[in-house]
Amino acid sequence: MLLTSNIGMLFAFIIWTILAARNQQTEGGNKGLGIGVVVMVFVFYAFYNFAMNPLPIAYLLEVLPYTLRAKGLTIFNLAQFCSGIFNGFANPVALEALRWKYYIVFVCALVLWLAVIYFTYPETRGLSLEEVSQVFDGKQALDRAYELKSEGLTEIVEKTATNGKE
Q: pLDDT digit string (tens) for 48-72?
């Protein structure tokens, strides 16, 4: 889902950039180009909402062990707030100075994210939490999870057989 979303955003943003460049070069004289930019904004956000709204937190919580989830989510939220503050202050200044050329920065960022997602994010669809743990921590993590499960079951059976007396 992340790849589909990112590829869709990249193509929409490339078209958005081309249309905005042509529109600004004609000094807003072509109404059709302006409409095309607005359409590409909606297409971009459709692909963005496909995966980038629901998946980052879900993926983060899925891949982090229980002991690190709160810390990982805190760092994620801090990064989100910092990027929001940066974008709120830097983007208007950069857009005014560079106009459509500033969109190229975002195209490059999308290409970078596409490479990061493709080369570093393992597929976890359809895996149990133990199997996800094996993907990130190796086979010993899965063996240890099954060992703990079997120890827990054995301990419960032993306590039941002795009526809780040890």
A: 999 999 899 988 888 888 889 999 9
